[in-house]
Structures are given as C-alpha cells and as structure tokens.
Amino acid sequence: MNTIYGYARVSSTDQNAARQLTALREMGVPEKGIFLDKQSGKDFDRPQYRRLLRRLKEDDLLCIKSIDRLGRNYGEILEQWRFLTKERRVDIVVLDMPLLDTRRGKDLMGTFLSDIVLQVLSFVAENERANIRQRQAEGIAAARARGVRFGRPPWPVPEGFHALRRAWREKKLTLSQAAARCGMPRGTFYSKARAFEKLEKENGAEI
Fold it and tell me: Span 5-34, mean pLDDT?
C-alpha cells in the first residue's frame, strides 16, 4: 500500500512550524509520517529529510506546504524535484500551489505545465530571499549612517589610558602592567592601543 508523507522545515529552532504541520495533518498525513527539520534550507544535508528519503518508495506521496520548504536555492530545488519524481518515482503535492501536484496531468502537456510552474515558483522564492537580504543590508547601512552601532559595545577607555599606553610603548611598563593598571585584559589593552595608534597615524596628531 502506498504511503503518504509530509515534510516541514523552519530555518531555526525558535521559529514556529505550526502552520506547516496543521496543513499536513489536514491533508491526511499521519503523525508518524511527518518529518520536521529546524535548520537552514541552504542544502539538503538535513537529518529529518535524510530519514524521509530512506522511507520513500515508488508511488508514495510527499506533501509540502510550499516549494521553498524543500530548499532555498533555485537550482537545488529543481534538481531535488527531478530526483524525487523521476528517479525515486514519488508523487509530490505542494499545498500552497495546487498546480504542483504530480498525481494530476501525467501526460506530456500536464508534465510540461507542472515543470514550468515549478521553475517559476523556485525562481520567485530565490529572488525574494535575495531581495530580503538586500533590504537587510540597506537597513543596516542606513542605521550605521545614523550612528547606530552593531555588535558588542566597545570596552570603555579608563582615565589615564593614553599615558599608560605611551609608558608601555616607551618600555617603562610591560604590557601586563599597563593593562592591569587600566583594569583591562592584556588583549583588550593591546587592541585598543593599536587602534588609537592607527588613528594617530591617519590624523597626523597624537591622541
């Protein structure tokens, strides 16, 4: 008897897969037939997806909520679709796009239309991710232009830092002594000192 399976994926452990799981259950996929990965779709090296592949056999049905649950990369999605439908001879249903149902239209025209829809949707999914990355980059650049800083806050420079820095450079103090008097780790003191010396060199004035 042919088996129905479902595959769901979210990009990280803190994302919610409830909508995908609900849609798969409504499609009639049994709980034991649902496989969920919580990791990026950048490739197909995912534990639950690999488990699913070991289960799938000819004429089984695989349900997914949307085409981008298979992966993020346009070429890889198409290659995986070809592998599943042509080599493993599995049927696939994309719940958000009824036209992508390989159980229907298995004649030449039906297959042709399905392939066109698949390619368009895969391209749109990848293009949207590229647009999101671009918008994120533009947002970060605009925030930086407004003076917003990202990452860990810089270690504050204590009073007397520059005098101790010069004493260290003049070998009146060791690195450990200068860092200890500033209340800094050696590495932090050294990196701060190098950063200020770079500024001095660029500006041609002593800080």
Answer: 90
| Backbone angles phi and psi of 70, in degrees to 5 | -70, -40
Distance between CA 197 and CA 95 in Å, rounded? 61
Q: Indicate if 11 belongs to the active site.
A: yes
The catalytically annotated residue of 11, 40, 176, 191 is 11
Q: What is the domain extent for residue 35?
A: 4-132
Give the chain's mean pLDDT: 81
Is residue 119 assigned to a domain? Answer: yes
pLDDT of res. 146: 73
**pTM for this model (two decimals):** 0.55
127 and 66 assigned to the same domain: yes
Angle at 91 between CA 116 and CA 73, to 5 degrees: 50
**Same structural domain for residues 168 and 106?**
no
Three-state DSSP class for 22? helix
Bridge partners of 9, per DSSP, are 37
CA distance 88 to 24: 21
Give the tens place of pLDDT for each residue, 58-84. 999 999 998 888 877 777 778 888 888
SS (H, E, C) 150-204: CCCCCCCCCCCHHHHHHHHHCCCCCHHHHHHHHCCCHHHHHHHHHHHHHHHHHHC
